Amino acid sequence: MSSRFLAVLACSTLALSVLAPPAGAQDAATGERLFRTRCASCHSLEPGQNRIGPSLSGVIGRKAGSVEGARYSQGMRDLGITWDAAQLDTFLTNPRAMVKGSTMTISVTSATDRAALTAYLQSPPQTN
Predict the structure, then answer these.
(1) Burial degree of 40 (CB within 10 A; 0-12, 13-18, 19+)
(2) 23-122 adopts what CATH topology?
(3) Separation CA 114–CA 61 (nearest Å)
(4) Please, what is the average pLDDT of the chain?
(5) CB half-sphere exposure, 10, CA atoms < 13 A
(6) Of residues 39, 24, 8, the one with CA closest to residue 85
(7) Residue 82 backbone dihedrals phi, psi, to 5 degrees
(8) Residues whose CB falls within 8 Å of the CB of residue 118, separated by 6 or more in sequence, listed in order
(9) If DSSP codes are grouped into helix, strand and coil, which group holds residue 61?
(10) What is the CA radius of gyration of the chain?
């Protein structure tokens, strides 16, 4: 290969790495869109602001069924897990299979969508 070709290739690679957002940022952006269209009618991201479902602010790392003032099924209160990405993925795949009596009726069948939603929920809160 010529040195000129290698120089062009190196510059192109550098430009793409600077201009393209990292994959996690893309997932979070997709997750934000999915959250707004599929989750926001029942869940808020504001701490302490429960809707039909609990606030999902800080859900990763939080004990299941522990948001003050939220209405939970007995199964969710008794679940005894701390939410992490894997647990959330399992729950979103089929909430009623994971938590007997769960009041969450929406499932997310796409693994890509579940990963994007999880990336969004793990991303730092956005300030406007």
Answers:
(1) middle
(2) Cytochrome Bc1 Complex; Chain D, domain 2 (1.10.760)
(3) 17
(4) 84
(5) 7
(6) 24
(7) -110, 130
(8) 31, 60, 85, 88, 89, 92
(9) coil
(10) 19
Residue with tokens 């430009």: 15
User: In which residue are the tokens 């793990």 written?
Assistant: 122
Query: What is the phi/psi pair of residue 122, to 5°?
Result: -90, -15
64 is written with which tokens? 């299941």
- pLDDT above 60 for 22: no
Distance between CA 27 and CA 123 in Å, rounded?
10
Domain boundaries in the chain? 23-122
AA letter at 49: Q
pLDDT tens digits, one per residue of 29-38: 999 999 999 9
- What span, in angstroms and rounded, lies between the C-alpha atoms of 41 and 52? 8
Q: Strand, coil or helix: what is 93?
A: helix
